[in-house]
Amino acid sequence: MTMSKTLRRGGALRILALLPILALLTTAGANAQSVNQNEKRWPSIRDFIWDHNPTIHDGASVIELKVPERAYDAAVVPISMKVLVPQTDDLFIKSLFLIIDNNPSPLGAWFRFDDNKNVSTLSTRVRIDEYTYVRALVEMTDGEIYMTKRFVKASGGCSAPTAKNSDLAMAGLGRMKVKFPDRMVPGRPALAQILVKHPNNSGLQVDDITLLRVPPHYVQTMKVTYNGATVFDLVSDISLSSDPSIHFTFIPEEEGELEANVVDSKQMKFTQKWAINSAPSNEKSMASRTLPSTTAASDAKRTLAAP
Amino acid sequence: MTGMRRNSGAFVIAAFLAGGLAGASPSAAEGLAVDEVAPGVFVHRGVHEVPSAANAGDIANIGFIVGEQAVAVIDTGGSPRVGAALREAVRRVTGLPIRYLVLTHAHPDHIFGWSAFTTDSLRIVGHAKLPRALALRGGHYVRNFSRILGVAAGVLRVPDIDVIVSDRLELDLGGRTLILRSRAIGHTDSDLSVYDSRTGTLWLSDLLFRERIPVVDGSIRGWLTVMEELAAIGAERVVPGHGPVSGDWPGALAGQRRYLESIAREIRAVLKANGTIESALATVGESERPRWRLFDDYNKRNVTASFVELEWE
Questions:
Q1: Which residue, among B188, B277, B300, would best test binding to A if mutated, counting the most A CBs under 10 Å from its CB?
Q2: Residue A1 sits in a domain of what CATH number?
Q3: Tell me, what CATH number does B52's domain have?
Q4: B269 touches chain A (CB under 8 A)
Q5: Which pTM value belongs to this model?
Q6: Which among A25, A101, A167, B135 is most buried, taking Cβ atoms within 10 Å?
Q7: Mutate to test the interface with A, among B129, B134, B136, B226 (most CBs of A within 10 A)
Q8: What is the tens place of the pLDDT at every residue in A256-305?
Q9: Which DSSP string do the residues of A227-285 spell out, in sequence order?
């Protein structure tokens, strides 16, 4: 089973099964010349995603990719992507890949959009272990692929790509927080953010002396809908920072419900819904209310105050 | 006065590094400079630089305390070469056995000299959470610091911790007791403080930065809380992890407190306005820029780390 066939069949679960293999295939040699701006891992990553060696066009006019020049904090590197082309009913973005070449698992995020033709801005935060290229690849509904890449330098000496507070990382597991602008106009794109309390750790091998073992525990999928329609459907991995954060655009209506469904690597499921209303008659009426969770998942039910 | 001492120290370090590069071990005359800041308390000042091949990771304050029967080394520098020079500095002062090696936290500029002490019959002492911190981060530190220092694979190794401090531990050096306290999450999640009761010296290591910009690698809120606990300790002098020893306690804490409080306040203002990390990075901490060495090397890192902590408030 190749990843491209899997993609065509939309089998997210199969992709998940392949991710560790991808990580294994591409780990070797990551360190040797990592200071150089080498791209030697990229061909194998590309072949894993598309086995037919497709033409990849320069994406400079299609997708903007903003990364800091240096990973100031190896555990939290903000990455922002912005779509630069108009989308129509006939031609729109099918999916977007965020790739971090030299990370242990290079597939940082794979967003799919179903019928959402209004994808505009997507931002997240990732771990960056080594000097590396970061790539944003857009796959259009006509099958054409566009890529933009940026080089990121590794962090300074004492920065590590791990959670800073290992004890707190598990507290409130699955709790979510949504943020959106104070004022929204129905029908106009608005930028929102969903945060998920999750350690998103990569696991740790048993150490002979300390006998420490931290099993991997990370967010695998996150599906966000607004009034039942897909905003994005994310497949992710250990490259996302602890407490994964996604900024995204959606088109608010006068009344609406945002819903997030998260599944992690232990098959724990977290669901949260927020009523998000933008009544034009009252500028200050922008209100969010956390609705009762449909899934009885630990702390996901905890109510969050509106921003 | 302080300036003169620092200058002569810099000369000595340069000589030691030159000797090291030439393959010769530093002689007594060219060895690591240490100041006896109180009777039996010796401190070597690291330089205010980012770690590099040129400074061999000698960027943190390290040192040792001499009792009547034994010596405790406190932190070891960022490479075995610095560690070896520290060990020679001990030997210039005393022939007593080095019985304890205290690692104040997991950062590479404090730990990687440890392997110069493997011939000593000593116990390595650290915070109860230090083994976990080293297990989670040690491999990354080895790779990253090896690249930065330009040393071969196998030179930098992660220490095993023999004795852990869960709350309080006393080390008896003979006629001199060191009181080690494990602190709650602050600069990192495995910070130890060391108090020498004979001289009233409080060795805070990276719980206190002076001159060099503090690094938030644990919790900004936690650190501000820990600082209040530390401020309540009566001490004749404090040894920071970076910057000069001070006899003004808790006055020496003021700069670090001002910096941390101001970036926390400015980040909260950005969060309140629905700003992003990127918008915070553009502005937060700028008023502090003239007050700190290496501001550009660490401020953005601190803002990033603090932002993702404070956005859950």
A1: B277
A2: 2.60.40
A3: 3.60.15.10
A4: no
A5: 0.87
A6: A101
A7: B136
A8: 999 999 999 999 999 999 998 876 544 433 445 555 444 434 333 333 22
A9: TTEEEEEEEE-TTBPSS-EEEEEE---SS-EEEEEEEETT--EEEEEEEEE--TT-GGG
